[in-house]
Write a structure and sequence with these properties.
six-stranded parallel β-sheet; 396 residues; 51% helix; two-stranded antiparallel sheet; alpha/beta
Length: 396
C-alpha cells in the first residue's frame, strides 16, 4: 500500500481505474477543458472557486527512454543538442496525442547568444563536477579538519576579490556584445542547498562529526558559504544592471541531504544560510521562498515554517497535512511518490491523488506533483490517468 493511503482511497481508486479506460486503453479526459481549468487553477491554487487541483507534473527528458523504447544514453542526452531535441520531438508527438500538449523543449539556443561560463559556488570551494555512470557528481575538496581549514582560508581570499575569480577573461567583451543584442546576464537565484552542498564539499559523516568535534570550524564553514553566495549573487546582479532595490526577488534550494541532520544541527549550520539569503533576496511575504528536498526531513518543517517557506516539494513519506501544519502559506508540490508514478501503479496513483486532494481540501494550496524527481518509466498514459482523476474526482 502507498504511504498513508487508506483502504477507502484504494477502493475508490480501483473502481475509478476500471471504469475510466476507453477502447484505446487510455483514460477518458476532456483534454481541452482540463487544460483550461488547469490554467485557472495554477493562477491561484488558493482560490475558493479554484476549479480543480492544479497539475504540477510536466514530465522531463528522463522519461523519453521507456516511452520511446530507446536505450538510455544519458551523456548524449545532456551534451548533444541534436540528439536531445530529436528525442524530445518524437516524445512530443506522442504527448500531443495522449495529453494534448508538447511537453518537452525542442529549441536549441543560438551559440552566438550564449553567455560565457561563470564559475559556480562549488568552483569557489574547489569542488569538481565529474561524470560518473549516468550523471555529474560533485567531488569532495577537503577530507579532514586541517584540509577544510586551509580550504576556507583560500575561499576567503577568493571572496575578497570574487568578481575576478568567477567571471571569465572575455567577460567584459562578451557582455558588451550580448547586451547590445538585448541579452541579459545570468542571475543567481537557486542553489544546491547548504547541507547537500557542504556534504558534497566535505563529506556526509565528516560534516556531522565536525559540528561535534570542531563547532567553531563548522560555523566558519557555514558563514563562508553564505558570504560567498551573497557576493556571487551581488556581482551577477550588478553585471545585469540591478541595484539591491531593483534586483529580482525569490530563491529556490535543492537540499536532499538536509535529512541527514537533526533539527538542532540544521538550525546551527543551515538555517542561518537560508535566513541570510531570504533576508536579502526575498524579504517580503509575497516573495518566493522555495525548497526541494525529496527525503525524510520532517524534523526541519518547524524551522522552514519559521523562515517563511512558501513553495515546497518534499519527500513522499511526508503528507500534505503534515507539511501544511508547519507551512501554512506554502504551495505544496506533491505528494505522489515518484516510484508509484515510474512503476505505472495506476490504482496507487489515483489513490495517492485522492489522499492528497482530501488533505488539501480545507486550505487548498496543493499542486499535484511527484514528491521528488520524475523518473524514467513514468508514462504519458499514467499522466493522462492522473488528469482524468483530477477532472472527474474533484468532488470525492
Amino acid at each position: 500500500m502507498s504511504v498513508h493511503v487508506t483502504a477507502a482511497h484504494l477502493a475508490a481508486a480501483e473502481t475509478f481505474v476500471s471504469s475510466v479506460k476507453g477502447a484505446d486503453g487510455l483514460a477518458k479526459v476532456d483534454i481541452d477543458k482540463f487544460w483550461e481549468d488547469d490554467a485557472k487553477a495554477k493562477a491561484d491554487p488558493w482560490a475558493a472557486d479554484c476549479p480543480q487541483v492544479p497539475l504540477g507534473i510536466g514530465m522531463s527528458s528522463e522519461c523519453v527512454w521507456t516511452e520511446l523504447g530507446e536505450p538510455e544514453q544519458w551523456y548524449e542526452l545532456l551534451h548533444d543538442d541534436a540528439f536531445r531535441v530529436g528525442l524530445n520531438k518524437r516524445y512530443n508527438d506522442v504527448s500531443e496525442r495522449i495529453v494534448g500538449k508538447r511537453l518537452l523543449g525542442e529549441g536549441v539556443g543560438d551559440p552566438e547568444h550564449r553567455w560565457p561560463t561563470v564559475k559556480a559556488l562549488h568552483d569557489i570551494f574547489e569542488g569538481e563536477n565529474e561524470w560518473d555512470g549516468w550523471s555529474y557528481w560533485l567531488k569532495q575538496s577537503a577530507t579532514n579538519p586541517d584540509e577544510l581549514s586551509r580550504l576556507l582560508d583560500r575561499v576567503e581570499a577568493r571572496v575578497d576579490n570574487l568578481r575576478a575569480f568567477i567571471l571569465p577573461d572575455n567577460w567584459d567583451e562578451e557582455k558588451a556584445r550580448l547586451t547590445a543584442l538585448g541579452k541579459k546576464p545570468p542571475r543567481y537565484r537557486g542553489q544546491r542547498g547548504p547541507v547537500t552542498f557542504a556534504m558534497s564539499i566535505y563529506g556526509v559523516e565528516n560534516l556531522i562529526y565536525l559540528m561535534f568535534d570542531a563547532p567553531e570550524l563548522a560555523k566558519r564553514f557555514s558563514d563562508l558559504i553564505l558570504r560567498a553566495m551573497l557576493e556571487r549573487a551581488r556581482i551577477l546582479d550588478e553585471e545585469g544592471g540591478f541595484t539591491p532595490e531593483t534586483a529580482p526577488r525569490g530563491w529556490y534550494w535543492c537540499d536532499d541531504n538536509c535529512a541527514m541532520l537533526n533539527a538542532e544541527m540544521y538550525d546551527f549550520f543551515a538555517a542561518p544560510i537560508l535566513e541570510g539569503i531570504f533576508n536579502r533576496y526575498c524579504p517580503d511575504e509575497g516573495d518566493m521562498r522555495g525548497q526541494h528536498s525529496d527525503s525524510d526531513m520532517a524534523q526541519h518543517l518547524p524551522t522552514l515554517g519559521r523562515l517563511g517557506l512558501n513553495s515546497a516539494n518534499f519527500g513522499p513519506n511526508l503528507t500534505v497535512s503534515e507539511i501544511r501544519e508547519h507551512l501554512p502559506k506554502a504551495v505544496i508540490a506533491g505528494q505522489l511518490a515518484p516510484f508509484t508514478f515510474s512503476r505505472n501503479e495506476e490504482v496507487n496513483m489515483v489513490a495517492e491523488f485522492l489522499r492528497d486532494q482530501e488533505q488539501a481540501r480545507e486550505k487548498k494550496g496543493l499542486r499535484f506533483s511527484t514528491a521528488g524527481s520524475i523518473n524514467n518509466g513514468s508514462r504519458l498514459s499514467g499522466l493522462r490517468l492522473i488528469m482524468a482523476a483530477i477532472q472527474r474526482l474533484r468532488d470525492y
